[in-house]
Write the structure tokens for this entry.
Amino acid sequence: MKIVINALPYFSYQGIEYFLANLIQAWPANKDDEITILANEISARFFESWPDNFKLEIIKFKKIDKLSIFIFQQLKLGRLLKKRKTDLLFCASLNCPWLYAKKIVTIHDAAPFVIKGESGQIGKMYWKISLFFAKHFSLHILTVSEFSRQELIEKLKINKDKLDIIYPAPPIITTSYKNQAEIKNPYVIVIGNARFRKNLQVLFKAYSLIKNEFSDLLLIVIGKMDKEMKILANSSQDPNIQFTGFVSDEKKYKLLGGAKALIFPSLYEGFGSPNLEAQIIGTPVICSDIPPFKEVTGNSALFFDPMSPEKLAEAIKKIILSPELADNLRHQGAINCQRFDWRESAKKLSEIIHLYENPADK
């Protein structure tokens, strides 16, 4: 089967790119499949290894930006795939060629459609059009949790028979990252961006409520320093709140390994991979009590009301003051991570793709 994996729309390593790179690395061997990763010069760097029947092909652009890639996907990619007699295109997001119908599309969550302020007017229009074509010009749609599956069925009116879950999983960790961060002060950590739904303002307020009691405690904020994050950083008057900008996975894991806790205060997510990243490294998780986090972490995290800085401040204090609670969360987190496996997820994805194999090719 001739399969193309679409890595063209990506030029910043974040959640979707993490999802795609790990699926490719864990893909089951099948010598009968011919699989091409179609990437731009930036996204090609996201893939460190792949099975023997994969190849990486780089499409060069004069300028790698959203507009250039959008034009290529809508005007050229479909014709290229047809010319090569591609059997199926796998897209890890809604960023895909609209009219090419032999594709599987991934919708991680319904945030662009249900969260006010998530996108501007042009963004809203783009996502609505992309959703229309995903519904009517795709073979199958994937998502990343049961919560997102229900959101897509109920709020986006996607046919449940066309929808499956491919769970993300923790990274494969082969070394200990405990106390490797070279930060002398105790600290808690948050990973994300400055979008409203990430709820950083509530975290900053909670931190302000405890900083007199824990004067040496730092708050480390990991996330790309885009326009919104720079505004947030510039408005912060507390030197104990430190913004790292984008960091490599290696540095992120080192920072997680030395943290008292990961704090994930989001109001809305589809899955929440940082929870599992922290747990596999052995860091306790404090997260908002939203449905996807309860689905993903079960009883292995300390939950709080994301609308209440006071509840979050209380949760942070509990972790700091109770080593027994922290150790229990580490233990439960390690057990929780065993529920998720990139190899199982990649195997399920491969099986879904092969549902659309031409019988003559089998």
Summary: The mean pLDDT is 94. The chain has 13 helices and 13 strands. Residues 29 and 112 are 35 Å apart (CA to CA). The first strand starts at residue 2 and ends at 7.
